[in-house]
């Protein structure tokens, strides 16, 4: 069950440095929203505000409102554990748990949230590994460490791990940045599948990727959302000259 | 000699110096081991390991009570120091830049440099004067005081080596900080933490001054933890400074036992870590 994500007037500071300036953005359910823009523009920070992972950094302060479904995520009384179950995250560098087997990597979240017991755990792990097209490749070595897989496989394992806790929203922070073209293609195929059931917000440096997989694109520059639009239109005709400069390679 | 030859000669000279320095460091270790084995191996047999000490000139004297005393006091020290050291390391790792963390880290560093004699005096004042008796408990506590900062600092280093991307994976999946530390960060750092604990145990096993001031020594078997207790280092020290040849030889033997025990402990820890790694 996908849930939409709405960001309203979000500002974010690291100490005195303002990283996000009055950002507003709405990601529809069952759509892929791509965040593009040069390095250091605040895309990753924006992503990390949505699952409140920014709280790991000291000196962070935040104003505004982020709604996932009907709930204000920035409400200090919100249940963070439940929020992070509903809002899954895929990182730039695949990060399977190094001390756990392939099976246990996927089962970790299921056990953590008590979503299944006994045989049901194994069934759920299998179905998640099948969804990310990894099952056939790993079914004979489920007890081997997750870190022994290739980088591309590791990223699919991380996807399966996140799928296993039944999120509503997927946040992806350049999920293909450390992958080869073939692995990238497989992840993109998965994202195209995923968005039928989930809301996907993806940060990418690859504009062709944004064009291939997203329905909506937001261009972020120096902490501001310069332009948001339907991907199909935006890549044909931009409204802001800065977006045009970025997309045509004059900047970035 | 032209420029190139000079450069090569310099490089060669440096290589030789580094190599010799390496050998010198190793040579000291091997010389110590060689002397201990040569002088000590002769007295070692089962009754030496299990008998009580005997007066000068009476044959059949052993180090049984010192062996037991050392094991018990190092055991007490380990039991006290390991949980506290690891807990402190977790705190330091979680609150890296907080004032308390900075103060704690500083205190731990200072404590590793405090002479062991001072630690012994501290526990002497704290426990021996109050209870009115030297004891194995006081000895164990003194060893714990020596061990805690070593374990804390080494364990913190190891926890820091756990990449933040792994922690983020756990938190992003909905794990709490506590679950992340207990189920991911600690298991991932077990290997390094174990090595740190072994170092601390080796350090504690050889301590003489703090034990002398807290447990004193004894020529009898340990009956309870509240009485003066024998230990290998104190036995070695007290036998070695006597003019009696048979006691001197027993001191060498006890030294060999001490070194072998620490060595075995280290090997056991390495095997434990290797077995754990295979499991994963």
Fold blueprint:
The complex is a heterodimer of chains A (252) and B (280).
Chain A: E1 5-14, E2 17-27, E3 32-36, H1 43-50, E4 60-68, E5 71-72, H2 80-86, E6 87-90, H3 102-112, H4 119-131, H5 135-138, H6 151-163, E7 169-173, H7 181-194, E8 199-203, H8 207-213, E9 216-221, E10 224-230, H9 231-234, H10 241-247
Parallel strand pairs in A: 3-8, 3-9, 6-7, 7-8
Antiparallel strand pairs in A: 1-2, 1-4, 4-5, 9-10
Helix pairs in contact in A: 3-4, 3-6, 4-6
Chain B: H1 3-40, H2 46-50, H3 64-94, H4 99-113, H5 116-131, H6 136-160, H7 164-172, H8 177-205, H9 209-214, H10 232-240, H11 245-279
Helix pairs in contact in B: 1-11, 3-6, 3-8, 4-6, 5-6, 6-8, 7-8, 8-11, 10-11
Label this structure with key terms.
heterodimer, A: 252 residues, alpha/beta, Rossmann fold, 6-stranded mixed sheet, 4-stranded antiparallel sheet, B: mainly alpha, MetI-like fold, 78% helix, 0% strand, globular
Based on CA inertia axes, which overall geometry of chain B fits?
A: globular
SSE-based structural type of chain A:
alpha/beta
- Taking pLDDT < 50 over at least 5 consecutive residues as the criterion, the unreliable ranges of chain A are none
Q: Architecture of chain B, according to CATH? A: Orthogonal Bundle
Helical segment count of chain A:
10
Q: What is the element string of chain B, with H for helices and E for strands?
A: HHHHHHHHHHH
Overview of this protein structure:
The complex is a heterodimer of chains A (252) and B (280). Chain A is an alpha/beta fold. Chain A has helices at residues 43-50, 80-86, 102-112, 119-131, 135-138, 151-163, 181-194, 207-213, 231-234, 241-247; strands at residues 5-14, 17-27, 32-36, 60-68, 71-72, 87-90, 169-173, 199-203, 216-221, 224-230. In chain A, the strands form two sheets. Chain A has a six-stranded mixed β-sheet, with helices on both faces. Chain B has 280 residues and is an all-alpha fold. Chain B has a single domain (66-279), classed as MetI-like fold (Orthogonal Bundle). Chain B contains eleven helices and no strands. The longest helix of chain B has 38 residues, at 3-40. Chain B is globular. Chain A binds chain B through residues 51, 53, 56, 58, 80-85, 88-89, 91, 93, 95-101, 108-109, 112-113, 145, 158, 161-162, 165, and chain B through 97, 163-176, 179, 184, 187-188, 280.
